[in-house]
Amino acid sequence: MKFTKMQGLGNDYIYVDCTKNIIDNPSVVSKKVSDRHFGIGSDGLVLIMKSDIADFRMRMFNSDGSESEMCGNAIRCVGKYVFDNGLTDKKNLTIETLAGIKVLDLKIEDNKVVQVRVDMGEPILESKQIPVDSEKDRFISESVEVDGYNYKVTAVSMGNPHAITYVDDTASFPLYEVGPKMETHKLFPKKINAEFVEVIDRTTLKMRVWERGAGETLACGTGASAVLVASVLNGLSERAATIKLLGGDLIIEWSEKDNHVYMTGPAEKVFEGEIEI
Which residues form the active site (predicted)? Predict the structure, then answer.
């Protein structure tokens, strides 16, 4: 299997052109290639496919083999892949995902994509649609108990579910203890991505993320988008802010004009190769 390893802020995936060839067992392949000791090493596998309703279709699988609806860092890399490899000459692309069709604007330098702005769509705030097992219409700063401690959690879906908690210091927060328990909490029937956020000021937020099916990653685009929305809902930030992740910064804006969330960030190719699967 020919592949390209790419990363967006250190959120790294293995990308495979499936516009002509199909992988029959992507869940198994994802677990194999993601292994950082016996495989290539990644947060998961991304398939780039033909679409009947958009320019391309993206399917993404986590390192544990589970399929996710969307990934903001991955979709930026998909835009770079299809343009840099000559699969399209469009600078404005539509990508089909399990979370709907996303629109990408590509910034080009020397005929290569260096930055991508993604229309992440409208945030989903209704508890039942996220989903959260709660009778409340919206789950904003609600108590969630983990190991006897009540965390104030705000739930947002960006096509995939997120639980945002504000903490004093992300660096010292016990993410590896709390993250997996939040991910699998009974309140979240489809599990959840857990973000822990430190407010620097009203236009700067710092976060760490425990991703559903992958554990801690260096960045999460849908997570950063959900964090901005949650911070606005909690009165902690402006509608545009820099989100500081372990792998770098994303610029997130929640537009009052169309209610869409826009994410801007880099996409980079690491290397190409072949692997026996």
Answer: 71, 220
